[in-house]
Amino acid sequence: MVRVHYFFDPMCGWCYGASALIEVLANHPEFEIIYHPGGMIPKRAIEPSFRQHILQADSQIATMTKTHFGDAYKARVAGAGDFIVDSYATTRAFLVGQDMGIEAHKMLAAIQKAHYQDGQHLDDLNALADLAVSMGLDKTIWEEKMAGSEANMLEQVKQSHQLMATMGVSGYPTLVIEKDGKLQRLSHSYYYGKTREWTNYLTDFI
């Protein structure tokens, strides 16, 4: 089995755009994805002056990747209320979901859909609990695990940053293949919206 290191953030728009490519990788029997969360945005409200930039970037992502951004999400970004983004809470949810038996790519995809399509307030732990329940997880156990998840999340982010420095990775999403002791970046951006071609490209590394 060939390892692929995936440097990502749940609140990264381009990572959401790459979700179809990640799904292909995750479902391929010859590849194992090692997820490295980056902790891109500690919880903060996004300034109204920056929101138009986000919408413009999302439009570009949608065009290039054929990924859908929902009306509820767009309304949140463009609206008068606070638009709070929290990579740390969503990364905790990503890790706890796996701990409770949800496959990593499915947990990440659920978080991305809840944010980028449904416009949910994922800085709110109650919203994350509702998401977990919708995936069939026990709410009480979920909340217990989330309550003790911060230290592990921070350690995972720290390790990701250390590995990024070692591999010369500077942004998200980045995919690095590890085979026979050698590292090579996957040219994923060329295959946005081209899952069939992406699948063919991956065969070169098996």
How would you describe this protein?
- There is one protein chain.
- The chain has 206 residues and is α+β, with helices and mostly antiparallel strands.
- It has one domain (2-205): Glutaredoxin.
- It is built from 10 helices and 6 strands.
- The strands form 2 sheets. A 4-stranded mixed sheet has the order 2-1-5-6.
- The longest helix is centred in the N-terminal third of the chain and has 18 residues, at 48-65.
- The termini are close together.
- The relative contact order is 0.20.
- The model has no long low-confidence stretch (mean pLDDT 96).
Give me the secondary-structure topology.
Layout: E1 2-8, H1 13-17, H2 19-26, E2 31-37, E3 44-45, H3 48-65, H4 71-78, E4 84-85, H5 87-99, H6 104-116, H7 125-134, H8 139-147, H9 150-167, E5 174-179, E6 182-185, H10 195-202
Parallel strand pairs: 1-2
Antiparallel strand pairs: 1-5, 3-4, 5-6
Helix pairs in contact: 2-10, 5-6, 5-9
